[in-house]
Design goal:
The chain has one domain. Helices cover 72% and strands 0% of the residues. It contains nine helices and no strands. Helix 2 runs parallel beside helix 8 and helix 6 packs parallel to helix 9. It is globular, with a radius of gyration of 18 Å.
């Protein structure tokens, strides 16, 4: 009887990683353009950077870049230098792109409901691309995994608590309708990731 041996999944090449990180970073930046055009907010580190940007008038890109700096040390300890290098690259591209894209892209009509859903789809696909190429956009996710390793406290709960704090703060700076549309966008992002980020359905690593 002939034994059937499953092929080993092919790993991403450096070129694959480069295009995946470029795609993910630029799509995430486009999502931020949609979000900030409508005055919406989101969760995680990007949401905190957006709120700081609204409150101070500082650009999102520089704020997001600086906020992420303390997290790279934890990322190095938890996931290694390659992950940190890829994540730093992704964060840098996103930060720069959000400074450039508003001058190149404009919206004549964009309803908040449509914008929230589009933000969710675009950002969800961006994060999927980054995750699948060994990268992220830094921030709370790294802390959540680190705390889970050290204390056993589930990473998902850490992220949920942080997001709850971000949206509570958003209610102090934005009206409740804006926060409600923002919540819709955050739900779409998480649904896209939850339904598509499956290692058993994605062969290449």
């Amino acid at each position: 009887m002939t034994e059937i041996i499953a092929e080993q999944p092919a790993r991403h090449s450096p070129l694959d990683d480069a295009q995946g990180i470029a795609f993910g970073s630029l799509m995430a930046a486009f999502g931020i353009v949609i979000l900030t055009h409508l005055g919406l907010v989101t969760g995680q580190t990007a949401g905190l950077a957006v709120l700081i940007s609204y409150a101070t008038g500082w650009g999102f890109g520089p704020v997001f870049f600086v906020i992420n700096l303390p997290f790279y040390w934890l990322g190095y300890k938890r996931m290694g230098p390659v992950f940190v290098a890829k994540t730093l690259t992704a964060v840098t591209i996103l930060s720069l792109a959000t400074m450039v894209l508003p001058g190149l892209v404009s919206f004549e009509t964009l309803h908040p409901a449509v914008g929230a859903v589009l933000f969710g789809f675009v950002t969800g696909s961006a994060l999927l691309a980054l995750f699948r190429h060994g990268s992220s956009l830094g921030g709370v996710g790294i802390v959540a995994l680190y705390l889970q390793d050290k204390t056993g406290f589930r990473a998902g709960w850490t992220q949920l608590l942080f997001d709850a704090g971000v949206f509570a703060l958003a209610l102090l700076l934005r009206d409740w309708q804006t926060v409600a549309w923002s919540f819709l966008g955050a739900v779409v992002v998480n649904l896209v990731i939850a339904m598509n980020h499956r290692r058993d359905r994605y062969i290449a690593t």
